[in-house]
Amino acid sequence: MKSEHIPKATIARLATYIQVLSEFKREGTDVVSSERLAEACSVNSSQIRKDLAYFGEFGVRGVGYYVQDLITSIKRSLGIDRAWNCALVGVGNLGRALLRHREFSRKGFIIRGAFDCDPYKIGEVVEGMEIVCSRQLPAKVKELGLDIGVITTPPERAQRAANYLIGAGIKGIINFAPARIAVPKHIHLEYVDFFHYFYAAAFHIRFDESRD
Amino acid sequence: MKSEHIPKATIARLATYIQVLSEFKREGTDVVSSERLAEACSVNSSQIRKDLAYFGEFGVRGVGYYVQDLITSIKRSLGIDRAWNCALVGVGNLGRALLRHREFSRKGFIIRGAFDCDPYKIGEVVEGMEIVCSRQLPAKVKELGLDIGVITTPPERAQRAANYLIGAGIKGIINFAPARIAVPKHIHLEYVDFFHYFYAAAFHIRFDESRD
């Protein structure tokens, strides 16, 4: 690997490449030209080459990419050739939707524990998983070998959820709550804010209207 | 506005700036130094200046940014100083979570219609909204003045949902379904794939482990 400083945009595009390549695979396509892959991913082929160059050399001149090989290589490069065990904290509407979301296990992120502070929720079973009190996180993280914490609490409880997860020895946090949180340097933190897609749509629609 | 080619990463960061500025506002902070804003947003201050420069001149030398003024300016620049009416297609787990998500109306994206093809769901009321058959989209888009379509169907139904929305005259589509879809050029399309945040976390955790 050339560098730990792989741009975030590259990792986001790699996610797209895997999705599109998986669609090609399902359709029975074994080899795909770089132009066809680029078109299906809505990027240009030099961008794909640049993104893949962080991880090694891929593709065969005059042929293109072997679909299965490229999926395997990207997954290995990203570290998703193994399963990652996740703890979800905050079993509200969004939490429940994620617990029921089939793509998680398909993509190698297995939600193995669901945690909440609400005594009315503790003991409830969602998707075959019993909701456990967040105070039990340290014991459960060890017992279940949990790597990544997923925060889906209301914003005002996000920091507390993060503290529980960090104290329990989790290595990374994906924060869906609309609140900034503080974590020590050794914890990898990602904010999920899907509103920026809405902002982008609003911005472009208004821009188009202003030109009409 | 200098250009329609505002990088996506800039728009994503503007979303973060608005969120952090709103937190400062709630705490009663009227003026914030560029260093403090940068730190709270986890970017450097020259990046903030660069992002804002697409839209005009902001900030007062030696003072920083006026919190409310900057929120107002960013919202106007992005086109979110008005409300946007949204149609949600696909009332499964994720669809329901979005219908109940309070941040939508807070951020100016009002979900005014919920659509599904499933006869068992049509007529059901979620969050005070009756689920309507997707075939009624053309009538409802006109009646309710809907601007943006939100697709939360299973992947295999995403293209059909998009076709309904496009036929109904929607201007932009936010696709949460894990499938690529085809839309005409005048429709602004955004894919929401929150798995790339998981990929990024997995990648960085493994990279850190490999250095230990």
TrEMBL record, chains A, B:
Keywords per UniProt: Cytoplasm, DNA-binding, NAD, Repressor, Transcription, Transcription regulation
Keyword Cytoplasm recorded: yes
SMART domains reported for this sequence: CoA_binding (SM00881)
DNA-binding region positions on the chain: 16-55
Annotated residues for binding of NAD(+): 90-95
Protein family membership: Belongs to the transcriptional regulatory Rex family.
Assembly mode: Homodimer.
Known function: Modulates transcription in response to changes in cellular NADH/NAD(+) redox state.
Coiled-coil blocks: none
InterPro entries named among the record's database cross-references: CoA-bd, NAD(P)-bd_dom_sf, Rex_actinobacterial-type, Rex_DNA-bd_C_dom, Tscrpt_rep_Rex, WH-like_DNA-bd_sf, WH_DNA-bd_sf
Protein name: Redox-sensing transcriptional repressor Rex
GO BP annotations, alphabetical order: negative regulation of DNA-templated transcription; response to redox state
Domain spans labelled CoA-binding: 79-180
